[in-house]
Amino acid sequence: MELFISSVRRLSQFCGILSALTLAAGVLVVCQMVVMRYLLDQSTVWQTEFTVYSIVGATLIGSPYVLLRRGHVNVDLLPLYLPHRARLLLAFVASFLALAFCLALTYSGAELWLDAWHGNWKTSSVWQLPLWIAYAPIPLGIGLLCLQYLADILCLATGREMPFGLQPGERP
How is the chain split into domains, by residue range? Predict the structure, then answer.
């Protein structure tokens, strides 16, 4: 179990690095597009699509890292005032519901990706990017997010982490 948890954490950290690099590539392409359009007065063909898909892809691929670092939006008013056992129960319920949602999203994203792959779908732009490339971050990123949720649930179950980062008896 320790091997699984540490492997998922390393994978989530890698996703964070990959996400940052993808986002940086999108920013560089926007800069290149500005130079092409406004300084060189040339048209751009692929830059807008690349930027949109890279930013969306970075968001999806980076989601396991955000969960690892507890960077998601979190309303913690209720857990602050609950006793430890109720916090633990709330953390399990929230994690299992999130995992179930992410599993469903991974499944439907994989179906969409597979349809795009088999149907040889392409964007309607001049660039005609194969849509399986654009859709790949959905099942990949959210699937890895499922693994991070599973690792978090295991950490809660074994006491490696406290629910909402609060020690038993800790109050605001």
Answer: 2-69+83-165
